[in-house]
Specification:
- The structure holds 2 protein chains of 2 kinds.
- By secondary structure, chain A is α/β, with parallel strands linked by helices.
- Chain A has helices at residues 10-14, 26-29, 42-50, 60-63, 70-78, 82-92, 96-102, 124-137, 161-172, 189-192, 201-213, 230-235, 266-275, 301-312, 333-341, 410-413, 444-447, 452-472; strands at 153-157, 176-180, 217-219, 238-243, 249-250, 263-265, 293-297, 317-321, 345-347, 350-357, 363-376, 382-386, 392-395, 398-401, 405-406, 439-441.
- Helices cover 33% and strands 16% of the residues of chain A.
- The mean pLDDT of chain A is 93.
- Chain B starts with a strand and ends with a helix.
- In chain B, the strands form 4 sheets. A 7-stranded mixed β-sheet of chain B has the order 12-11-10-9-13-14-17, with helices on both faces.
- Chain B has 2 domains: 4-91, Beta Barrel (Elongation Factor Tu (Ef-tu), domain 3), CATH 2.40.30.10; 102-214, Rossmann fold (3-Layer(aba) Sandwich).
- Residues 282-286 of chain B have low confidence and may be disordered.
- Classes of the chains: A alpha/beta, B alpha/beta.
- The interface between A and B is large, with 40 and 40 residues.
- FE2/S2 (inorganic) cluster binds at residues 219-222, 224-229, 239, 241 of chain B.
- Iron/sulfur cluster (SF4) binds next to helix 8 of chain A.
């Protein structure tokens, strides 16, 4: 299968089937927090890349929000030129180890792959993951060029994917970067939200180390809007600011009983486990309720992460409760498959209307309604409508609410001049500049809950805009 | 040194300590009623504590801690020169302060540490301040001297009568309100155990006096991100870390708060036991 035997014909390529991602067995992995996927070997990677037909019009690239040169990338992988593939990747995507693991490829690059029309698309995500891991393991550090110092100070608010990407780009342009992070650890959703079994924290840590090598300073435990206002940052000599503080405000169901003990927002549940290490209690000091029967509301990635976490914390029964049907679930398809293999129960077309508590205030069940799908709503998905009289009770001792997030008003509330829309998200122009000159914004705080790659795309664009702004200024 | 150095420590009562630690930016911008969240070391939990006082020129803040659990126990055992790894703040809304004429500030146990900066700020605004400070026993009546520097009157009470007036702070408060003081009491700030704040709020309701309480629910981030600190106020869910920690005592659902505070009681007991076994072992070895 090696490339020195010459290029293969399309027919030969078509004959190769999509390579399966090696993964740990469901029984084994559902007991710990280590990563589920094991990753391609070099041989598997080359073979999978060979499935690419090297189309004249590579539609896959239209599907990637940051326009990764997927065609060329796959060619380099096929040739076994892994470090060149990594370098190419980093031209458009600075965090491939993350996107390879968390992009919803099935609705992005892989959705547009022609091989998907009949059969299965090329596994772009798995290959991205392989290349990034290969690069990280390769002993030779990849040298990145840094422009001569401009001595212009730029502040980044938030160390999620948007903030990290902007910081890396701006540092390479020679600017003097400081990232301010509210938590005691950098990474945003990548460390407090997405669990270890899907995105090992050492990968995020390696990216943060790369940033530090570029001279980026990270100020933890610093809340912009509390510790410093945006005005104070300007007074302290910062010439431009990129606000990437995410969409950290939990949404609750608004049903009676939601304040019983044992009801968590997904943010709290995942933060306790991932950031605070509650799975390791009492070796770590932060506790968590380990339910026997855990019900998780919602159908997105956050819900899948929560329910699989519950399973790993020892739940006998861990259930997804979703008011639409499986087709409408916005979670990555791979996560749904993994969840199913791990024995997660899916209660579809079910909506809780009341959370029940026992005499001591602990959650003991949920009253639910069965739903059916009606006419499509604004999102284009069919609207779930309750079936009257279908009430039933579900036993549960821990409830996790993962039905979305909204804009956290802490920073905007402390910054009256910062224009926000009616949902509280920050308004920006086509250059991602906000209503305050020199203040730019991107990621979830502009888009609403979106994706890692879109946040990174914003980070990259904001870096360019800020660089232009600093040149003009 | 990684983190925030403890520059001074004072033992206020058998298990209550006051510590001053270096946190210059917080010392500069904090306002009365605000708090910080700290994490002593890697693997530690995030613990919210009210800023009892701050010295912007020295760049320090003062915290008052009662050793009731593992983390508070560990904190109380730290000595000057040692450091706290993470301190974030200031968090929460500052106290709503005004010229009321006469305000009563009530502290129960370490709650006195929380009400202290509020009382001080009220006095600075020209209010007459009456302070009622309760404790289980004499040892737990805190900050009496400090308060008497600016409060017109300081009334200590103890449950067992070992000091000051015997009984609860509510009895002393009733006496004050019924004595038709001049100027009349227009605001009451009560901070302490939940049952105390509830009793004060119940007492003042018929008098129709504005009553502020400072709530201490379980917290994680302190930025409105997790919702763990939710409390019901006037029938609405509010996040104490960003909407509070102070609320109108006449509108707070205290029973729900009391109940939610018991969530990790068992887990905490386990942690304390382990911690004590561990420290005993260390002592044996040394
Ligand atoms: C559990 C979970 C699973 C997900 N799974 C996926 C997935 O599989 N694929 C995918 O593409 N997307 C996924 N997402 C969505 C994705 O993580 C987000 O879209 C992305 O992280 C947004 O990046 P961001 O940089 O805008 O913000 P965030 O990652 O939210 O980072 C914001 C950072 O700013 C900090 N901050 C907030 N306010 C302040 C302040 N005032 N001062 C200083 N710092 C502040 C926060 O602490 C945080 O660290 C998931 C989200 C969650 C919660
Ligand atoms: S960044 Fe995401 S969408 Fe783009 S090619 Fe990689 S996996 Fe696909
Ligand atoms: S502590 Fe998390 S929202 Fe208040």
């Amino acid at each position: 299968m090696s490339s020195n035997t010459g290029r293969m014909t399309a027919k030969q390529r078509l004959a190769i089937e999509r390579q399966k991602m090696p993964e740990r067995s469901p029984d084994e992995r559902a007991k710990d927090f280590n990563e589920v996927n094991l990753g391609f070997t070099a041989e598997l990677a080359k073979l999978e890349a060979t499935r690419c037909l090297q189309c004249k019009k590579p539609t896959c690239m239209d599907g990637c929000p940051v326009g990764v040169d997927i065609k060329k990338f796959l060619e380099l992988v096929e040739d076994g030129d892994f470090l060149a593939a990594a370098a190419l990747m980093r031209q458009t995507n600075s965090l491939p180890a993350l996107t390879g693991r968390v992009c919803p490829q099935e609705i992005q690059c892989e959705a547009e792959c022609v091989r998907g029309v009949k059969g299965e698309p090329v596994a772009v995500g798995h290959l991205e993951r392989f290349i990034a891991d290969y690069e990280r393991a390769a002993s030779e550090p990849v040298n990145v060029e840094v422009a001569p110092p401009t001595n212009k100070k730029v502040a980044i608010v938030g160390s999620g994917p948007a903030g990290l990407t902007a910081a890396a780009d701006l540092a390479r342009m020679g600017h003097d970067l400081t990232v301010f992070e509210a938590f005691h650890a950098p990474g945003g959703v990548l460390v407090y939200g997405i669990p270890e079994f899907r995105l090992p924290k050492k990968i995020v840590a390696a990216e943060i180390e790369n940033l530090k090598k570029l001279g980026v300073k990270i100020e933890l435990n610093t809340i912009i809007g509390r510790t410093y206002t945006l005005d104070e940052l300007f007074e302290n000599g910062f010439k431009a600011i990129f606000v990437a503080n995410g969409a950290g405000l939990p949404v609750f169901l608004g049903v009676p009983g939601e304040n019983h003990k044992g009801v968590y927002s997904a943010n709290e549940y995942l933060t306790r486990v991932n950031l605070m290490g509650a799975y390791n209690f009492p070796n770590c000091d932060t506790p968590i309720m380990r339910g026997r029967q855990v019900a998780v509301m919602g159908g997105g990635n956050v819900a899948m992460d929560s329910v699989r976490t519950a399973k790993r914390l020892g739940a006998e029964k861990a259930t997804i409760v979703y008011r639409r049907s499986e087709r409408e679930m916005p979670a990555r398809i791979e996560e749904v498959h993994h969840a199913r293999d791990e024995g997660i129960i899916f209660e579809m077309l079910t909506n809780p209307i009341r959370i029940l508590g026992d005499e001591n205030g602990w959650v003991c069940g949920m009253e639910c309604l069965h739903m059916e799908l009606g006419e499509p709503d604004e999102s284009g998905r069919r609207r779930p409508v309750p079936i009257e009289g279908s009430n039933f009770t579900m036993d549960t001792d821990v409830v996790v609410v993962a039905v979305g997030a909204r804009a956290n008003p802490l920073l905007s509330g402390a910054t009256p001049d910062l224009k926000i829309n009616k949902w509280g998200y920050i308004e920006v122009d086509e250059n991602l500049q906000t209503s305050i000159p020199g203040v730019f914004a991107g990621g979830d705080i502009v888009r609403g809950s979106a994706t890692v790659i879109l946040a990174m795309g914003d980070g990259r664009q904001a870096a360019q805009s800020i660089d232009n702004y600093l040149k003009d200024g | 040194m990684v983190g925030h150095e403890i520059v001074e420590k004072q033992v206020l009562a058998p298990d209550v300590v006051s510590i001053r630690l270096r946190a210059p930016q917080i010392a500069r911008v904090r306002k009365p009623g605000q708090f910080i969240i700290l994490r002593i070391s890697e693997g530690g939990e995030r613990l919210p504590l009210t800023i009892a006082d701050a010295d912007p020129s020295a760049g320090t803040i003062r915290l008052i801690v009662q050793a009731v659990g593992k983390t508070t126990g560990q904190l109380a055992s730290l000595e000057p020169g040692q450091a706290i790894r993470d301190v974030v703040g200031p968090l929460g809304r500052p106290t709503h302060l005004d010229s009321f004429g006469h305000a009563v500030c009530i502290g129960g146990g370490v709650g006195t540490a929380v009400v202290y900066p509020i009382a001080k700020a009220l006095a600075e605004l020209g209010n007459k301040v009456t302070a009622i400070i309760g404790g289980r026993t004499k040892d737990y009546v805190l900050l009496e001297q400090e308060l008497s520097r600016f409060a017109q009157r300081v009334i200590p009470t103890t449950d067992d009568g070992s000091y000051g007036q015997k009984g609860f702070v509510t009895a002393a408060l009733k006496d004050v309100l019924d004595s038709s003081p001049e100027p009349p009491v227009k605001a009451i700030y009560a901070v302490g155990p939940v049952p105390m704040m509830k009793a004060v709020s119940e007492l003042t309701r018929p008098y129709g006096i504005y009553t502020v309480v400072s709530l201490n629910p379980i917290m994680v981030d302190g930025t409105g991100m997790c919702g763990g600190c939710r409390v019901t106020v006037d029938g609405q869910t509010r996040f104490a870390c960003v909407d509070g920690p102070e609320f109108d005592g006449h509108l707070v659902d205290f029973d729900e708060l009391t109940d939610r505070l018991t969530t990790y009681r068992q887990a905490e007991a386990r942690a304390v036991q382990r911690y004590e076994n561990h420290t005993c072992k260390l002592k044996d070895e040394s």
